[in-house]
Structures are given as structure tokens and as C-alpha cells.
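Q: What would this chain look like folded?
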Amino acid sequence: MYAASREARARSREALRAALAGSDGVAATTGSELFAVVAVLDDQRSLRVALADVSVPGSVRAELSERVFGGKVSAATVAVLTTAVAQNWSRTADLVDTLVLLGQEALLESASDSGRLDAVEDELFRLGRIVADNPDLEQALSDRARPSSAKRELVARLLTGKVEDITLTLAEQTVTRRVSAIGPALDELSDLAAARRDQIVAHVRAAIALTDQQRDRLAAALRRIYAKQVTVHVQVDPSLLSGLVVRVGDDVIDGSAIGRLERLRRELA
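A: My prediction, written as C-alpha cells:
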């Protein structure tokens, strides 16, 4: 994302914070409505381009967005949307991606307000693992030729009554986006939820299941390294033979047997 879009995103986030401040219950509505706005923009290319056209004054673009969506969404959503479209974006896609992010953050704020953020974070992580471990499901949810409505229906059948409503909404929206892989996209949402609690996420692949004591020791070690609270998510991967692989952001710590064998192979080559 270029500088112009980064600045535009920052200002749009400020508008979201202002819209949600001191208003009980507005976060969930705002998040869902921002997703609905994105769905309209995805379907209507001409409107999408018009709202991000930097050759048109920002005030004119904001007025257009209010004419189109005013009365159909809440005042809080209109405030966020008009602020976002009034900014100068480097690419049209940056505007749409930011509206998606703002919708996600609003829903996670709602989960935090209701004390359910931990549950949502864990469910998103577990769903990401289920998708990543099931190639047929991954293909069905990421197939660009498959209608978005069919993907949402599939997610609803799998998750309704089994996860938090916010988890379901976030998952349904994720599968409608043009992402290369659904599993990693769900992981990013889980990380976003952790960030709201001022925590970082350690994605751990272990040859065997870790005991609670082992998880606690690992989390404590990572806290010392990163000087932050750490959420540890573990996926069992017998192909590692023994040990584990830890990923925190772009950092990877490979203590697995297969990793040691690979390093030895490179040294001998």
C-alpha cells in the first residue's frame, strides 16, 4: 500500500473510532453494514471507481456515497463511509480493502464489548486449521467461479449454532473476498483479534499434542523474547517427526526433526 492509501486508511480508522465511541451496541451494526456496503461495491464497478476517483473532489465523492447509502445504513456507518471515500486512495482496491478491515475491526470491537473476543479469536484460528487441513473445503470456499452466495450458504451450514454469531459473520464475509487461500485469511483475522488485546499470536506446528504445561512454558519463553503477551495456537503435524515449528509474524523458529535434517542436507550439499 502506497503512502497516500496508508494515510487514507489511518484517517478512516480514526473515523471508525469516533463513530463507535460511547455508543453501546453500535459496533456490531456498523461492522455488518460496512460489509454490506462492500458487497454493493464489489457488484457495481462504476460506483466503486467513482468513489475512489481522485480527479473528483473528496467532498463530491462523500456526497455521492451519502446519496447512495444514506437511509439504508446507520448514521455511524455513513460517517465512516463518507470519511473513507473523501480520502485520496492510491488504488480503488485500497478503499474497498480498508472498508473490509474497518468492518472486521468494528465486529471485533463488538466481541470485546460483550466479553467474547477470546472465543471469537479461538474459533477463527480453529476454523482456519479445519479449512487448511481439508483441500476439498478450501477449494470450495476459494473457487472464484463459485457464486458468493453459495460460499456463504456453505459456511452457514457448517457453522450456524456452533460458533459465535460474530465468528460466523466474519467467516461468511471472508469467503466472499478474492483471496488466494481462505485458511491464511482466517489466520489473519485471528491475529487481528489478538492484536486488539495487545497480544501477538504464535502459530505452532508440533509433532505431537502439547500438554498445558508445555504450552505455558512456550508462551512464557516467547513473552521474554517479544516483551508482549503471547497467544499460542497449536496445530499437530506428525510429518515434523519430533519437535515443533513456531511462527510469530515473519519470524520462524524451526526446532523440528525434519527442519534439522533439512539444514544438515544443505550443509552436506
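The mean pLDDT is 90.
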